Amino acid sequence: MVDTRFFGEAKETKLVDLLGAVGLAAEAADMHFQDMDVGGVDSLETAQSQDISLAAQKHYLPDLKETKAGVVLVAKEFKDDVPSGVIAITCAEPHASFVKIIEYLYPDSQHRLAVTPHVGELGDPVLEDNVTIGQNVVIGSGAQIGENTIIGPNTIIGPNVCIGRNCVIGANATLECALLGDDVVIGHGARIGFAGFGWLDHAKTNKKIPQVGRVILQAQTDIGPNVCIDRGALGDTIIGENTKLGALTMIGHNSVIGRNCLLAPVAGLAGGAILEDSVLIGANGGTAGHLTIGAGSIIFARSSASKSWPEGSKLVGNPAQDMKDFWRELAALRRLAKGKTK
Amino acid sequence: MVDTRFFGEAKETKLVDLLGAVGLAAEAADMHFQDMDVGGVDSLETAQSQDISLAAQKHYLPDLKETKAGVVLVAKEFKDDVPSGVIAITCAEPHASFVKIIEYLYPDSQHRLAVTPHVGELGDPVLEDNVTIGQNVVIGSGAQIGENTIIGPNTIIGPNVCIGRNCVIGANATLECALLGDDVVIGHGARIGFAGFGWLDHAKTNKKIPQVGRVILQAQTDIGPNVCIDRGALGDTIIGENTKLGALTMIGHNSVIGRNCLLAPVAGLAGGAILEDSVLIGANGGTAGHLTIGAGSIIFARSSASKSWPEGSKLVGNPAQDMKDFWRELAALRRLAKGKTK
Amino acid sequence: MVDTRFFGEAKETKLVDLLGAVGLAAEAADMHFQDMDVGGVDSLETAQSQDISLAAQKHYLPDLKETKAGVVLVAKEFKDDVPSGVIAITCAEPHASFVKIIEYLYPDSQHRLAVTPHVGELGDPVLEDNVTIGQNVVIGSGAQIGENTIIGPNTIIGPNVCIGRNCVIGANATLECALLGDDVVIGHGARIGFAGFGWLDHAKTNKKIPQVGRVILQAQTDIGPNVCIDRGALGDTIIGENTKLGALTMIGHNSVIGRNCLLAPVAGLAGGAILEDSVLIGANGGTAGHLTIGAGSIIFARSSASKSWPEGSKLVGNPAQDMKDFWRELAALRRLAKGKTK
Fold first, then answer.
1. In what order do the strands lie in the sheet with B51-55?
2. Residue A224 and which of B263, B308, C77, C193 are 20 to 30 A apart at CA?
3. Is the whole model's pTM more than 0.90, yes or no?
């Protein structure tokens, strides 16, 4: 569900009007909506009966079959996988149509780089006791800051951002569309919750996909300086309890990191990566998107996982493989180059 | 041509005086300059009849043969390639002499990290209607900002920077020596137009090469948070229309990126790289400098091109090669390590 | 020695009381301390007779045998290597106990992300003549700034930071726990002296190791924009005279870089790396920690050294190897993939 603290209340809208406004009247011509009101947009997994969701590519299929969404924009080839009782709008370009719906329902999503506070949006933040606010800090209206938290100088806190107790937020940082637990540390210059790198029609029109999700930093997370964490495109980017991120780390939208992980400096996760608990990533290591790294795995420095790996994996290389395989192959190559057959 | 909005008017200077001032009197002793006035410095390609240019290494040769510069500082081995009518000053160390000339003509180029506004340089910017300026924004004198543009809090706009209409500039960013088109988005903490990484006499004296160029961000470019874009050393670093750069991307001086490209987060181009239109670079991918990547090419994540490639290339690895070759070689290595001959 | 300008005066403490307070009473039960006063904590190499030091792992051994520390917390297996006259406290978890001692002696080390100035800590900095301070700069009490130095807008200078003469500090930067020589340049958004990435009990409790060291930037160093340099964990992170670091470079705690080095943009050193003089590292290149790269070596772009290399090495690959070996192996692989035996 889109958090309307960050992206404005969806307009009260009849489904039939919405579909007309975004150019889907023909696709919906034969349907009978009985004046259905639209709640909002959501992912297939969490959408409710008044929400609109999307099934654009093959990897949406498992969630499509289980969805409780009211309406799904669906590519022709997945039409028969829409559960009965769910309204299926078959589109030539479902993702592009879904973008139009987001822009229509959440006008803020298309106008601004990010939800930085500006004139008219500054208000008194809600502060608990003993909060320390540095010089030149700018706080958006509706922001909440917990007891004993310190905000460093020149930092920007976006509207409605919630920060827990005993947090330390560094200097020159920016937080927006974010909810922080207690005892969170944010490094100087960290960028938390900006719009991630999501585009349609790659290298042709580069149409921006509105990013209407959030960042959740659970308790005791520690985020290094100049780190960048995208907010979710739809839904949340989550950093789990007691997980620590080194300087200059980059976390793509909708990544979900478990508890007690350590990501060394300059690590990076592409969008939609899942790290289970207690994963270690070495400096400049990382993963591709839309995969799962099992609990307790280690991705060594400068190595990147290109697919899912089970718990306890130890990975080296690009693309990463089991470390024993990596070293065996390197040894084989060295023997080959020296003209040895064994 | 050096943009004198950013680096001060070149002094009115006679060529003979300039050469004496920078220690080239002996090299020019036999020449007859007839009181020639110096216009400025420029690259071989764009220099005019009163400009001084440089031909220091082999890769300058094609432009040297076609140059319309008035004067060229030239290494001995390229002396015979200077077109007739162009004054050739043969130097032992042409690049070092050229640096002295830049420092003499543009004194600002040697004194400051970057052209940040400071006391005495702040002036009323020229704002069109409906511009929104955040808290604690610092704007240098002569800066121009177009209609409907928003500048986020704590951002620094250097003197004479021009920003188009409907732009969104994030918070805590710095812009200097830059010209921006309409509808440009700049992420929080982005560093646009600082002096790039150019040095002479590597690892010995590390003499700084003055950086007297600009950054041009064409319309609809979108620059992620904490991105760094060097200004040109001489001439421009250019990001083409509708090209999008992810978070923490690094663009070296004098790189030229075409239209509709997508560079995913943590991508990087070394100085002087050329990307034609519609090039895609995956996360943490990039190129070396002084090469051309043809239109529509893809450089996959964590791969880096070390030489020029034609249009439509699909590149993987370090150094990058055609993706089919990359995967075939990896498969061969795996068979080898398993002791298989096929 | 911990610099008490940055981490508060160690409490006047009797050794016997300290050991009791941190849970080491039993380990010290049979010893007779004669009311020994504790000076502070320090590394084995530089500790004096009233200091406490640590020998937790094998790589501490050479320094352990030579230490002049008064007291050493030592793992059981190294107990016999403690020099006579040094009090050895044998612990099950010496590093964890050492952390408790640091937290006890230097309470500031555990409470704050970094030593950013806040209410109560702002004071008049000590400025020499002709210092230029930009708008919205925040300076902590006790900071010193040398003649002709320029501080860019919105930059934060932590308490007791010392900056030399003729320096140029960019905008939106943060400096803390740092000492800068003359003629130093710091890029916009650089993060100098924050707490580095040091944790105990990896991926379990992720216990923070307090970082009570400093950053030393020697004369004529040039630090690019958005660069991150950790302060030492204990002792100093040092960038040598006339060394230049490109944009987005990351330097881990206790790294020591020699004179006249060049680290291109997005380079990175893990903690405790030593670069001798005149080392070149290409873009996105780097090293692992706890190793030494000999003078005049070159680590090419995107390559990373995983072990020590002698002077004059030319290194390519991941893990880096001698460049001739790298290219020979790549050629062998290509022949193999093409089915050639030679």
1. B40-41, B51-55, B71-75, B87-91
2. B263
3. yes
